[in-house]
């Protein structure tokens, strides 16, 4: 019974992940290395990868400016991140992010910059442009990074309409998201409300998970982990029990 229950949970999880990712997997990546020293005119959503190679090259510098349409801001969320090795005070290979159209704009990253393997936080510009500056010094066999870039409209509390323009979806903060990006399998809002079953009317397994509290998610994770452990113990017990069973021969006695 334990095995069949675990299998059922795995089936539900797999179909849920497929349902949540069926749209996002078809999004093609643009490569930042193809746009060095250029300005990228952003669509509503764009996936950007640093390089198409397995590892980025050493002694390389690349600056690129991301530009949204008027009355929009730029948001980037990191999905993969592998830049050099993080040192105590300085990054040998480093990514820096600026709130504007050049590296002379206000820097959004710390003085150290971004490096290492930990996924950085989400960055949102205050204007329609954001600039990324990447620099590598040594060959470190690192893969670089991949970001998902979203163009947000800005909600104005004192506007005449009192709502997001063009009937776009309002995140729980002050940003407006185009309706085409709602329930597409990719959380664009910082609070993930655009993929919520309750707030956006999304369907599917992942939409239900987003609406759960942190405690509920932890509970589900623990329950699944315990079921998996139980399944493993059941398999081990059945295998060891059958292999250790011995045939007992009863001596024949003539009466």
UniProtKB/TrEMBL annotation:
The keyword Transcription does not apply. Residues 1-20 form the signal peptide. Gene3D superfamilies: Low-density Lipoprotein Receptor, Spermadhesin, CUB domain. InterPro entries: CUB_dom (IPR000859), LDL_receptor-like_sf (IPR036055), LDrepeatLR_classA_rpt (IPR002172), LRAD2/Mig-13-like (IPR042333), Sperma_CUB_dom_sf (IPR035914). The chain crosses the membrane at residues 218-240. Residues 36-152 form the CUB domain. Keywords: Disulfide bond, Membrane, Signal, Transmembrane, Transmembrane helix. CDD domains: CUB, LDLa. It comes from the Eukaryota. Disulfide bonds join 164-176, 171-189. This is Enteropeptidase. It comes from Mizuhopecten yessoensis.
